[in-house]
Structure formats: structure tokens, C-alpha cells
Structure to design on (315 residues):
């Protein structure tokens, strides 16, 4: 561990401190500030030569600030001769634009972020439930994507019998994730919500495939933004006879009227991770519980040191 250094950006210092504590390390000494014109300033205040540096920084809102901190800190570490730089990005922002749908004139933002990280010397990325797995192919170095949904949902079996549960994919794109969670819980069947999305952050429930009557519905997903989709899904499930609706969602983006939408929805419980610090939003929504991912990230970093398998974490 004497060759490992943990640094934190400003997006989630509490999570970074927990990871460092679990590893028995102190957070690296870095000054994060701004110049008078608002530009970000970074200075590393300790020797990093020949050491493995880890930067814990989610790129959630304000995404531009958090991303630029990560970029500039990586460059500072590279120029200070760090042996390796691992970007630990619990939430990987700008991941929702990962392709040009029907040749629309839009950027492939996830690819741009990958090239930026590579350009400043990052040699590995650790993330949780990345929005789409093909993003890993945008990088020329390893990306460890930890499937947190499986880990978060395991404890549900302590409170319910398997035959009571039904895993529900919130859309057709989430079927693989839902099937993996179902396998973890020992649930045989799967339900799918087929929704039609007219534009970003607006969704309409179109059809429910599968039986949910008298079932405790487990809804896994990678992120929750305005909570419109989840609200519509929970209403549809209750209308079809679901007994309870419990969502396990890794990244609580929670923008706009998300908290109001959750409070007004038919969802009974929303379990999110602390990949994003939701601050006072937790107090405004009694339906939300937070799952601590610090032990998972700590173990992933430890396994990089020991050479053990990271994929075993979520199998």
C-alpha cells in the first residue's frame, strides 16, 4: 500500500474518504481551487513519483467542473511522474450519448471523454454500472465496470421468499441487467416494460410483458434522472396487480422534479448508491435508501494491487 495514493476531487469527498479509510490510507494532499476568472487550479502537494495514483471523482452535475478537475488532476499526476493513474469514476457522466442514432448530427460524447482521459495519462478506469457496455471499447486501456445492481439487490432475499419476487426490466435495453439480477436472486421469470420515448427525459409506458400480479417487483437500472420513467413504470406495475415495487438504481442523478416525481409515484422503496452525493435530497424523500459502494471500490482497488479478479466481485 505504500506505493498507492488516493486522491479526491470535489464531487464526492465523503466517498473518497471512506475508500481511503477502508484501504488504511490517507487521502493524497491536493489543493483544489479556482482562479479569479473561475478557471480551476490544481496542485499536488506530495511526491507521487513511481507510485500508483487513484483519483476518485464522479462526473455528475456540475459535470463540466467535475470532469475538468479529473482531467487537470490526471495531467498534474502524469507530469509529476506517477507510475500509473487510475480514474475511479463511480458515475461516468456523458455516457448517454454513445452512438449516432439514425445518423443524427450529434456528438458521441462518451468517446470524447475516453479520448480526453487517455490524452492526460489515465491508464485505467474503474466505474459502476456504466450506461452501455460498448463504451468500454472507446478506450485503448482497461475499463473495469462493476455491476453494482447485483450486489445491491442481494439483501432483498433476506426479507422476501424467492417465489414472491419478480424482476422487471424498465425497458428493453435493460433486459441483460435484469436477467443478471434475476439469476443472482434465483428468480426464474422476468417481466419487461416496453416503453416508447418521444424525446430526452420524457417516456411513455407502452406495454407490460410478463406477469406481476401479487408479486414484489424488483426494478434494477443504472441511473435515475427525472424519475419520469420509474414513476410511469411503478404505476403500470401496480395497475397490473403488483404487491410492492422496489427499485435498485445505481446512480441517483435526480435532476429537475425528480424528488417530487418519486414522492408522487407508486414506488414503495428506491435503493440508490452513493456514487453521487445527493445531499439534502435524501431528507426530502422518505422512499430513498442509500447503499454504500465504498467497500466495493476499496476491494476493486485492492484487487488491482494483488492481481485478483475484479469480476468476481459481482458474480
Amino acid at each position: 500500500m505504500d506505493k498507492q495514493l488516493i486522491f479526491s476531487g470535489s464531487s464526492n469527498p465523503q466517498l473518497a474518504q471512506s475508500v481511503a479509510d477502508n484501504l488504511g490510507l490517507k487521502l493524497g494532499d491536493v489543493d483544489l481551487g479556482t482562479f479569479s476568472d473561475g478557471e480551476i487550479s490544481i496542485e499536488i502537494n506530495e511526491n507521487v513519483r513511481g507510485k500508483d495514483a487513484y483519483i476518485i471523482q464522479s462526473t455528475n452535475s456540475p459535470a463540466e467542473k467535475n470532469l475538468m478537475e479529473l482531467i487537470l488532476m490526471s495531467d498534474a499526476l502524469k507530469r509529476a511522474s506517477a507510475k500509473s493513474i487510475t480514474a475511479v469514476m463511480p458515475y461516468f457522466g456523458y455516457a448517454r450519448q454513445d452512438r449516432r442514432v439514425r445518423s443524427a448530427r450529434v456528438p458521441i460524447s462518451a468517446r470524447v471523454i475516453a479520448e480526453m482521459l487517455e490524452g492526460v495519462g489515465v491508464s485505467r478506469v474503474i466505474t459502476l454500472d456504466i450506461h452501455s457496455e460498448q463504451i468500454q471499447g472507446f478506450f485503448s486501456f482497461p475499463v473495469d465496470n462493476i455491476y453494482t445492481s447485483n450486489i445491491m439487490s442481494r439483501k432483498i432475499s433476506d426479507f422476501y421468499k424467492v417465489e414472491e419476487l419478480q424482476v422487471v426490466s424498465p425497458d428493453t435495453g435493460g433486459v441483460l441487467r435484469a436477467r443478471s439480477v434475476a439469476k443472482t436472486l434465483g428468480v426464474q421469470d422476468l417481466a419487461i416494460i416496453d416503453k416508447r420515448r418521444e424525446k430526452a427525459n420524457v417516456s411513455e409506458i407502452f406495454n407490460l410483458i410478463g406477469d406481476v400480479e401479487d408479486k414484489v417487483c424488483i426494478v434494477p437500472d443504472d441511473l435515475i434522472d427525472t424519475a419520469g420513467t420509474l414513476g410511469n413504470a411503478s404505476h403500470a406495475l401496480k395497475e397490473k396487480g403488483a404487491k410492492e415495487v422496489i427499485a435498485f438504481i445505481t446512480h441517483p442523478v435526480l435532476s429537475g422534479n425528480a424528488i417530487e416525481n418519486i414522492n408522487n409515484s407508486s414506488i414503495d422503496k428506491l435503493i440508490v448508491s452513493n456514487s453521487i452525493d445527493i445531499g439534502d435530497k435524501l431528507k426530502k424523500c422518505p422512499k430513498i435508501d442509500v447503499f454504500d459502494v465504498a467497500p466495493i471500490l476499496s476491494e476493486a482497488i485492492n484487487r488491482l494491487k494483488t492481481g485478483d479478479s475484479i469480476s468476481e466481485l459481482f458474480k
User: Anything to note?
Assistant: The mean pLDDT is 92. The chain is about 30% helix and 25% strand.
